Amino acid sequence: MFGELEHELELHVPASEAWDLFGTLRIGQLVAKELPHLFQSVELTEGDGGVGTVLKLTFAPGVPGPRGYKEKFTKIDNENRIKEAEVVEGGYLELGFTLFRVRFEVKEKGEDSSIIKSIIEYELKEENASNASLVSIQPLATIAELANTYLNKNKPSKQPN
């Protein structure tokens, strides 16, 4: 069984600024600091932020779904501003999922705006099909909202000519 969930949010910053956050480890650091009700911890266990980097995510008590898992960055496309990570240990894999992938795409919308598209793709063994209800786009929507607030609060000021 295959499934996909999507969320889009307009960010009021250029795509390059949004990608400077989403395309790096900075998004994980921001999430760990600002969303303690969602994530108990986001730990770098391997790598430097490039393809092959592994993060250990531990969710806060009370968050539905798995308690935590390790994810590996499998794609970072700086030209097209796409970053993908797949669960490689624990979490959804223990619940019958054969694939659980998160993708962020930053698209240019205008000179001072962009779109962050968050996508979850998953594959699930038929005998575990009922576990599809555990998949929620809400955490990614919350991360996008946090990023929007953070980016707007920390915009570089434009100097008059």
UniProtKB/TrEMBL annotation:
<dbReference type="GO" id="GO:0009738">
    <property type="term" value="P:abscisic acid-activated signaling pathway"/>
</dbReference>
<dbReference type="GO" id="GO:0010427">
    <property type="term" value="F:abscisic acid binding"/>
</dbReference>
<dbReference type="InterPro" id="IPR050279">
    <property type="entry name" value="Plant_def-hormone_signal"/>
</dbReference>
<protein>
    <recommendedName>
        <fullName>Bet v I/Major latex protein domain-containing protein</fullName>
    </recommendedName>
</protein>
<dbReference type="GO" id="GO:0006952">
    <property type="term" value="P:defense response"/>
</dbReference>
<dbReference type="GO" id="GO:0009820">
    <property type="term" value="P:alkaloid metabolic process"/>
</dbReference>
<dbReference type="GO" id="GO:0005737">
    <property type="term" value="C:cytoplasm"/>
</dbReference>
<dbReference type="GO" id="GO:0005634">
    <property type="term" value="C:nucleus"/>
</dbReference>
<feature type="domain" description="Bet v I/Major latex protein">
    <location>
        <begin position="1"/>
        <end position="154"/>
    </location>
</feature>
<dbReference type="Pfam" id="PF00407">
    <property type="entry name" value="Bet_v_1"/>
</dbReference>
<dbReference type="InterPro" id="IPR023393">
    <property type="entry name" value="START-like_dom_sf"/>
</dbReference>
<dbReference type="GO" id="GO:0038023">
    <property type="term" value="F:signaling receptor activity"/>
</dbReference>
<comment type="similarity">
    <text>Belongs to the BetVI family.</text>
</comment>
<keyword id="KW-0017">Alkaloid metabolism</keyword>
<dbReference type="GO" id="GO:0004864">
    <property type="term" value="F:protein phosphatase inhibitor activity"/>
</dbReference>
<dbReference type="InterPro" id="IPR000916">
    <property type="entry name" value="Bet_v_I/MLP"/>
</dbReference>
